[in-house]
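Could you help me review a protein record that somebody else here produced? What it holds is a sequence and that sequence's fold in token form. I have pasted the whole thing underneath without changing anything:
=====
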Amino acid sequence: MVEEVVKNIYRISVPLPQNPLKELNSYFIKGDDSDLLIDTGFRRPECAEALEQGLKELGSDPARRDILVTHLHSDHSGMADMFVGPGRKIYMSEVDLEYKRRILFCGLNEQKRERLRSEGFPEDALEIVYNTNPADKMALPALTDAFHGFKDGDTFTVGEYTLKAIFTPGHTPGNSMFWIEKQGIMFSGDHILFDITPNITQWSEVEDSLGDYLESLKSVKDLPVKLTLPGHRKTGDYKARIEELFVHHDARINEAFEIVKKYPGMNTHDIAGKMTWKIRADSWETFPVIQKWFAVGECLSHLDYLRLRGKVRKEQQNGIWVYYAV
């Protein structure tokens, strides 16, 4: 449940029921006058109970507790307002905070739904996704006065540790990592995971999510990281993992391109069905609908990447975009 990873920095395991990620790593930093909790979990009772128990075990006083969120995904931000101390602050990058506002008030989710519809995702399946998706059902329901935006380079000091925010867009538009330079510790969130690959999907009003992600990886690959604390599962070799992620996405980009060449005029939904996925399903037809949603979004980010670099083109046929190699 709770382990001390280095002096005064603790990992609290928060289960993510019925989710392939299995658990979230929430990190608690014990300071002198205040404490900091990094990421919280889905907004559901099992997550709340585990996080509450972990904080109780650590003797955490809510009156001292601020919250720092690596990115807006609901498995990281869903309970931020439930665990922040009275009169304390919740920090999220200005970009993700604004994006969350636009989800709540400007219909960004409906924009994403329309984009997927135009990429061939069946309407009946989209209806299921948007009625059951944990990204919505277990997310922050509102933004309160406790929320404060931070910029790239802003710092947070807790006890002997000073965390520097590093803007790493891609996984979300305002995804961030937190770098403790003096001790060589990196809170990598979902930007760098070790035994699973971060999902890079298409985001409304973001032109090139995958390109952003790869550029973000390049920008941080040479930092002298001694210990990486990821958002899920186990840690590993920082630089080696970044190189593996470059190789992985290069292979996925090439795979998507070869499918477009082999099957000209195919839509994104069907191209995704031709790609390889690590999932327990006999065929594309038997994929769980929510996993299809993730797969099509990821495929679309790779097609956007190829299109913006002149490798593929798209044209609309009967209201659906289809793709051709250039």
In short: The longest strand covers residues 9-15. The CA atoms of residues 228 and 238 lie 6 Å apart. The chain has one domain: 2-261.
